[in-house]
Amino acid sequence: MTQAxxxxxxxxxxxxxxxxxxxxxxxxxxxxxxxxxxxxxHVSTPFTVAxxxxxxxxxSSLMRLMRARLEERGTPxxxxxxxxxxxxxxxxxxxxxxxxxxxxxxxxxxxxxxxRRRALRVFRLLLKVxxxxxxxxxxxxxxxxxLSVDAKSRNEIRDVVHDMAKDWADGGTSPGRQLVVxxxxxxxxxxxxxxxxxxxxxxxxxxxxxxxxxxxxxAVLARNMQESGGSAGHALGHLEKIVQVYYRTPAPxxxxxxxxxxxxxxxxxxxxxxxxxxxxxIAQRTRRNPRRxxxxxxxxxLEYHLNRDWQRFGASALVRVILLQHFYPEFYRxxxxxxxxxxxxxxxxxxxxxERCKAGNHPGDDEFFTNHQVAPPPAxxxxxxxxxxxxxxxxxxxxxxxxxxANPDFVSLIGELSQEADFDELRRYLQQxxxxxxxxxHLLTDDGEFPQAILLxxxxxxxxLDATISPEAWASRHDLWRLVNELRDNHDPRRLHDLLGQDIxxxxxxxxxxxxxxxxxxxxxxxxxxxxxxxxxxxxDAKLDLIADAHSRxxxxxxxxxxxSLNDAFRRFEPDLFISDITRDGDPNAGLDDLAALxxxxxxxxPAIFYTSRVTPSRVKRAEELGAxxxxxxxxxxxxxxxxxxxxxxxxxx
Length: 654
Prior knowledge:
Elements: H1 27-40, E1 47-52, H2 59-72, E2 77-81, H3 82-85, H4 89-98, H5 103-116, H6 121-131, H7 136-147, H8 151-154, H9 157-170, E3 179-184, H10 191-204, E4 210-216, H11 218-227, H12 232-242, E5 245-248, H13 254-268, H14 276-285, H15 290-306, H16 310-313, H17 315-327, H18 329-336, H19 343-358, H20 366-370, H21 383-394, H22 401-405, H23 408-418, H24 423-434, E6 456-457, H25 477-489, H26 493-500, H27 506-513, E7 525-530, H28 542-552, E8 555-560, H29 566-573, E9 577-580, H30 590-600, E10 608-611, H31 617-625, E11 630-632, H32 635-653
Parallel strand pairs: 1-4, 1-5, 2-3, 3-4, 6-8, 7-8, 7-9, 9-10, 10-11
Helix pairs in contact: 1-2, 4-10, 5-7, 5-9, 10-12, 11-12, 13-14, 13-15, 14-23, 15-17, 17-18, 19-21, 19-23
């Protein structure tokens, strides 16, 4: 067993870069250039600069570095976070600008407003006394209160702000005085907030001396506008009216991102775990996004600290497992699937066979072909024959093998994982221990509605319940739900399992259990699911999490692991959808053959889905021939196909 590692790793924060020593991508050089552009363009104010970049690509960091550079030069700045301002964005943005003016300018504006409104003598007298003690925040708040009495008075905002800006600009020691206002997180806001910010800039703050720097992802901004009932063109049109300069932040080049990863690894204490191959994979799979890189490293640090088992297997093993989980979910699902098949050894053997066949050399591994029910190539096979043999065996391999085998960094990653000490034990641990912690929320939780997740099982043995329940009680959904709740509240899963195993009339129970309380409504969808890996222990089967999710959406699932009961299940349950595994009792095509028999016998002609840990081209082709929706190992894809069946069923009923 690997010895425990005493190295302490630390998480990385997600704060924007503000100083040069934290600037791993040399964004300070870009910040200097943009600041030079702004200050050299002082005669062109007002104007707006938009920094356009995707999520996590350093917009806020660049703006923070620009702000620091401006303040070093003595240029005043203001920072406005559009997302945290909420529905008061217009007011908060205008106040952010007013607060940068000194107290005397705000006070003079207040006096001018009072004169303009012909205030009463007593009010004017009191005002002079009170304003002496107001701080600038109170002054700005009071000024805004006076301006926002009604819609007509708010029309004065522009004139007041213009007068204040002119006073401020004229009060400088040199001509061309500027105030630079940074607006961050605009792309996280609703359409209403975006329009309010644009309105504030265009209608109220379009005054000499002011420069706005807006950080946003324009594509996300357009999408948010659409979700708020507007249009993408509407959002971009408003931006075009206020923005004069666009700067698109580029993704870091290969050398820069390697330097970034090295810097993050050094700060987190993980540098020794990241070789060239791992670094290249991280750069490629994160699309060189700094925030994604940080989150990947933090995932490792958190898992290593919270799960003591990794101190047995080693930090390097965890790094590779985290990479698979984050970036290669299909391979990770196959690795953690229960069963005797070793996906790592199979993949490495395939890469060797593939390389030799493509080079025109005999693979020298006949067993690899026969293990996949494919005849190996003859000893004297030519290049075309070798390629044909490779094509045939690839039909029996996971669909993602060829693409991954073409990636030398991934092949290196899997090779390194296979060389980890006690790899076989690590693989068993991933299959049996860690797997459940990465599934959907479990069924037996205090914050969920467990009755919605009741699972009906055709083949559970009779059990003895300590609590007595009469046959008549099965006719009352309310009583059954009450009993289930009692067992759940007492944290007694064993008795709950016995309850679910009672030999009841499922057809009768279904009519009562499927409908919401007090209604005669039918479920959204009835699903029959057969899988021989369903376990008696509800807490240990991730598939049951999927079933619970389906129940929460109004979809009712009847599960079984007994193929002998299938015909009876179809007769009694009349499902709208059939879900099946494929390999069963050593037969690699059992599920496919079952559906073929159901079709040919006229028992079921509805939609079907195969949910299995192993998706191969040959299985996909056979499923298509049987009229199934497809074969998948992805729980999200499974749920999307179920929703598609629901939508098709609703359309047919309309």
